[in-house]
Amino acid sequence: MKKLSILVIALLLVGCTPQAYSDNLTKGKDAFNDGDYSKAVSLFEKAQNEKETDEISSYIKATQLLLDSEQAIKQGKLDISLKKAKQVVAMKGNDSLLKRAKSKAKSLIHKDQTLLRQKKSLEKSIKKGKALLANNQYDEANDVLNKALSKNTLEHPAISEQKSTIKSLIKQAVNGAKTSASDTEQTSAQPQKSSSDNTKSNQDTSSKATSSNTNTNTNQQEGSSQGSSQSSSQSSDQSQDSGTNQGTNQSLTQEEAVNLVKQYLGVDSDDKTIVQYDHDDGQGNYIIHVYEKVIDDPSTGVGHSVTRGWYSVNKKTKKITAQ
C-alpha cells in the first residue's frame, strides 16, 4: 500500500505543469500579440526549459520564422523573407497563436511578392534605358525611365538601389539631350559664319579695286561710317534686349516649385501630405511627387507610400500641370 501511494504521487508530480512554464508561456503569447517576436521567442524558450511540449516547440518555430522573415525584408533579402513566411503557413496546427502567425506570414508573403514585382519591373526599365542611352536616344530613354518611376511608387529599402539608378540615368538623358541640342546649334551656325566672312572679304576687295578714284573712295568711307554707326546702335539694342530677356526668364528653383504645388493643392505645414521634388523631365519642367506615407507595421516602422499625384512645374512660366 505504501509503495502504491509513492507511485501515485510520482505520477502526479510528472503530470503537473510547472508554474514557471505557464507564466513564461502566457508572457510569450502577450509579446507575440504585441509584435515583439524576439521577446516572445526568448520567453517561449524559458518555458521550454521548464517543460518540453509539442505546443511550445511549434510556438518557438513559428515565431522565429516570422522574426527571420521580417529581418530579411528589412535588409532587402526578399527571397529569404518569402521562404521563411511560406514555412509558417505550411506548419501544422490551428490554435489561436498559430492562426495569428499564419495570418502575419501571409501579409509578409504579399509584401514580398509586391516588392519582387516592382524590383523586376524597375530592373527591366533600367536595362531598356541604358540601351537607349547607348544609342543616343535621350528623349526616348527619359520617357521610359520617368514612366518606370511613376508606375512603381512603393518606397522600400529593397528597391531603393534600383530607383536611385533610374534617377541617375534620367540625369544622363537630360544632359545628353542638352549636349546634342547644343552641338546641332553650333553646326547650324558654322555656314552662316562662313558666309559672313566671305561677304566681308568681297567688300575689302571691292574697296581696294576702287581706291584710285578719290571721290568714290570718299563716298564709300562715308557710307561705311554710317553703316558702322547703325551696326553699333543695333548691337547696343540687341545687348539691352538680351539683358532684359535674361531677367524675365530666370528659372524657378526646386524649392520654389515645391512651394507652388503646395499652394496649388492647399497643403499646410501640419498636413500629413508630403510634397517632394523628384526629378527633371528634360523638357524644362520639375516633376513633383505628392504622396502620403502609411505605416503597415507600427512595431517595425515598415510601411508604404500612397501617391496622390504627380505634377510638372515649368521652370520659366511656373505653369503647374497634373501628370
Automatic annotation (TrEMBL):
Which superkingdom? Answer: Bacteria
The cross-references to SUPFAM superfamilies, in alphabetical order and at most eight, read: TPR-like
Q: InterPro entries, alphabetically?
A: TPR-like_helical_dom_sf
Provide the leader sequence positions. 1-22
Q: Point to the regions of Low complexity compositional bias.
A: 205-243
Q: Where is the composition biased (Polar residues)?
A: 177-204
Region Disordered: start-end pairs: 177-250
Indicate yes or no for the key word Signal: yes
Q: Does the keyword Signal apply?
A: yes
Q: Which UniProt keywords apply?
A: Signal
Name assigned to this protein: Lipoprotein
